[in-house]
Amino acid sequence: xxxxxxxxxxxxxxxxxxxxxxxxxxxxxxxxxxxxxxxxxxxxxxxxxxxxxxxxxxxxxxxxxxxxxxxxxxxxxxxxxxxxxxxxxxxxxxxxxxxxxxxxxxxxxxxxxxxxxxxxxxxxxxxxxxxxxxxxxxxxxxxxxxxxxxxxxxxxxxxxxxxxxxxxxxxxxxxxxxxxxxxxxxxxxxxxxxxxxxxxxxxxxxxxxxxxxxxxxxxxxxxxxxxxxxxxxxxxxxxxxxxxxxxxxxxxxxxxxxxxxxxxxxxxxxxxxxxxxxxxxxxxxxxx
Length: 288
Ligand SMILES: [Zn+2]
What we know:
By secondary structure, this protein is an alpha+beta fold. The chain has helices at 22-32, 36-53, 107-111, 140-151, 187-197, 201-206, 211-218, 240-249, 252-260, 280-287, and strands spanning 2-8, 14-20, 62-69, 75-80, 86-90, 114-121, 128-133, 155-163, 169-179, 225-232, 265-268, 275-278.
């Protein structure tokens, strides 16, 4: 389980949330067997989706982050529910590129140029979709830019995933700090000072800091109060029934063609790699 904590400054100007997403990133590694830079990229995207999805108003609200880049990873998608549970996938899981000039996994290079879309499904007829050009492909910067340009919410977002040489995930996590409407601007320099003094998230987790320690550190000097906390995990909500509905959506003619091959049809879930097998008879059953 990954712990999420949320806190608010005493004057109600600024809210922060933090997550130790190590378990979520470890599941990404287990399900998708990505190379190190893809684990870092997907781990960051999933951590961000978890922080942004957590606390959505309604139980069935869904938040999706989609990156379409021209780098080797291709497109990446992460979907989070209102508890911060998340699932994610990418076009290409094996990307081998040199470290960047800071000696770190080159997420920006693997993502390339392109767009970030934030899709909010609030159970209305049409989901809300906001799309911006990627700033760096490093993900945290791109999402902060989305908030600034599309939602006019001043935001600080930090994400980190530390991958071991054997490709296992050592630490992953992130924090999100946002000004609330009518915020007292006096809090801005305090936040800026806090953020500048904070080590990278994975260093904080490595030193034993918890999500609660991190969220309180974000709001240090602003008399933070803990708002709430939750536990999130990598969770895929696929099922045989949902998979059948996807098959039905391809249309009767296509289904008939599939059934006439007289071979079992295997449908693999992009998010958890689970395989669902349908016999030709079962496919014909869907046509009716
Ligand atoms: Zn699945």
